[in-house]
TrEMBL record:
Its main location: other. Belongs to the bacterial solute-binding protein 3 family. It is found in: Cell envelope. Residues 68-293 form the Solute-binding protein family 3/N-terminal domain. Residues 1-33 form the signal peptide. This is ABC transporter substrate-binding protein. It comes from Mycobacterium deserti. InterPro entries: SBP_3_CS, Solute-binding_3/MltF_N. Coiled coil: none annotated. Keywords: Signal. PROSITE patterns: SBP_BACTERIAL_3.
């Protein structure tokens, strides 16, 4: 959500697709997100945890009395949030939010939304919290508060036998999801460095969805892809040897859950996550999705690094 589809989903708003993948492969367990706005149909929560009265009592009264935690989410962004073959919303973020909500004595209700509408909908009170791999940035903190829960960086992937150096990719085609940090910041800066040095520019090939960007590498339509580290790691695993990491993770930054500015819900979420870290549930969920390398030791409110 350097992450919301973070966009590194993370730094900027998601927009309409600028490129479509020709002959893209279809991976099982993934469905495209809603392009028409919010959906009133929530997913069925998965996983469980136990209510902790002291933490649950810290939840704002309006939310507590409703018994629900309304969560705005944009999909797909594997492995954090996507749909399984039955259409159920699943993923690392989902399992963690289910455990958070249970700790707070609430039932999570996931509402699909365009990525760009989640934070404004939180500000307007439509959603209590956002859950879409959002990168906590200082710019976003002017509009909402964030509770950090994960650390993600950028990681490139390539086809085996076709090595790419992320720091010297001049003249190469690199796939990204449109409006992610990689699309708006990382690759434009690297492309400029190439041209400033008199070398051919990196050709940035942008796709509306991450699956299409991944498929483009697998199909040989591009030389490499750049995405948030958990996304790339999952894509490598999912493609069963058709992709491998190119280089190491860099530019790490925190993912966070956005809530209304000044809302005490931020403290409630922070306490709930601290509890899940202490009892081992957080680690269990992260390991289940293979993203344990991004675990954090202590959640903070508004932990942006830039």
């Amino acid at each position: 959500m350097l992450g919301e589809c973070q966009v590194r989903r993370g730094k900027y708003w998601r927009i309409v697709a600028v490129f479509a993948a020709a002959g893209a492969l279809a991976f099982s367990g993934c469905a495209s997100g809603s392009d028409s706005g919010d959906s009133d149909t929530p997913s069925t929560p998965a996983g469980s945890s136990e209510k902790v009265e002291e933490i649950a009592n810290s939840v704002p009264e309006a939310i507590k009395s409703s018994g629900k935690l309304i969560v705005g989410v944009n999909i797909p962004y594997k492995p954090n949030e996507f749909k399984d073959p039955s259409g159920k919303i699943v993923g690392f973020d989902v399992d963690l939010m289910n455990a958070i909500a249970a700790t707070l004595g609430l039932t999570p209700e996931y509402r699909e939304s365009d990525f760009a509408r989640i934070i404004p909908s939180i500000q307007g009170g439509t959603y209590n919290v956002g859950m879409s791999s959002f990168t906590d940035t200082k710019e976003r903190e002017q509009s909402v508060d964030f509770v950090t829960y994960f650390s993600a960086g950028t990681l490139w992937a390539q086809r085996p036998g076709a090595p790419i150096d992320p720091n010297n990719a001049c003249g190469k085609k690199v796939a990204v999801q449109a409006t992610t940090y990689q699309d708006t910041d990382e690759l434009p800066a690297k492309r400029k460095a190439c041209t400033d040095a008199g070398k051919p520019p990196i050709e940035i090939v942008s796709f509306d969805g991450q699956d299409a960007a991944t498929n483009a590498v697998v199909l040989g339509q591009v030389d490499a892809m750049s995405a948030d580290s958990p996304v790339t790691a999952y894509a490598i695993k999912e493609t069963n040897g058709k992709l491998e990491a190119a280089g190491e993770i860099f530019d790490s930054a925190p993912y966070g859950w956005p809530v209304q500015k000044g809302s005490p819900l931020a403290q409630s979420l922070q306490k709930a996550l601290e509890h899940l870290i202490e009892n081992g549930k957080y680690e269990e969920i992260a390991k289940n999705w293979g993203v344990e390398s991004g675990m954090i030791d202590k959640p903070v409110i508004n932990g942006a690094v830039n």
